[in-house]
Amino acid sequence: MAPAADREGYWGPPTSTLEWCEENYAVSYYIAEFWNTVSNLIFILPPIYGAIQTYKDGLEKRYLAAYLCLTAVGLGSWCFHMTLKYEMQLLDELPMIYSCCVFVYCLYECFKYKNTVNYALLFLLVTYSVVVSIV
């Protein structure tokens, strides 16, 4: 829980179900948790570069998917820590679930037979993602 001396900021009072240990709007009027927000750059900039290089080098699409998933996690977390709004909290948490599902499928891709698709695993991962999203 954040300290009681939180300031009112641009995004108004927090509506998220949790807050971290950083004083809200202490560094910037526009960013609720400044350092948590800025620290997400490591989840945004390098994966964007990796996705660009993956595309340029013509690597398998699973690598591109993995980099884009990391970017989505970083952007969602950036938005959440910047605003501390419930909707942005979902934008932070749900991409983590989806990304993990993509990574699990990417791991399967490492050990599959050529030109095969594991529909059972795809169905299981999509179903899991949908159920978590609904709950």
TrEMBL record:
Its cofactor is Zn(2+). Belongs to the alkaline ceramidase family. It is a multi-pass membrane protein. Its EC number is 3.5.1.-. Zn(2+) binds at residue 81. Its main location: membrane. This is Alkaline ceramidase. It catalyses: N-(9Z-octadecenoyl)-sphing-4-enine + H2O = sphing-4-enine + (9Z)-octadecenoate; an N-acylsphing-4-enine + H2O = sphing-4-enine + a fatty acid; an N-acylsphinganine + H2O = sphinganine + a fatty acid. InterPro entries: ACER (IPR008901). It holds the Pfam family Ceramidase. Hydrolyzes the sphingolipid ceramide into sphingosine and free fatty acid. One of its GO terms (molecular function) is N-acylsphingosine amidohydrolase activity. Ca(2+) binds at residues 20, 22, 24, 33. Keywords: Calcium, Hydrolase, Lipid metabolism, Membrane, Metal-binding, Sphingolipid metabolism, Transmembrane, Transmembrane helix, Zinc. Pathway: Lipid metabolism; sphingolipid metabolism; Sphingolipid metabolism. The chain crosses the membrane at residues 34-52, 64-84, 90-108, 117-134. GO terms for cellular component: endoplasmic reticulum membrane. GO terms for biological process: ceramide metabolic process; phytosphingosine biosynthetic process; sphingosine biosynthetic process. Signal peptide: none annotated. It is found in: Membrane. It comes from the Eukaryota.
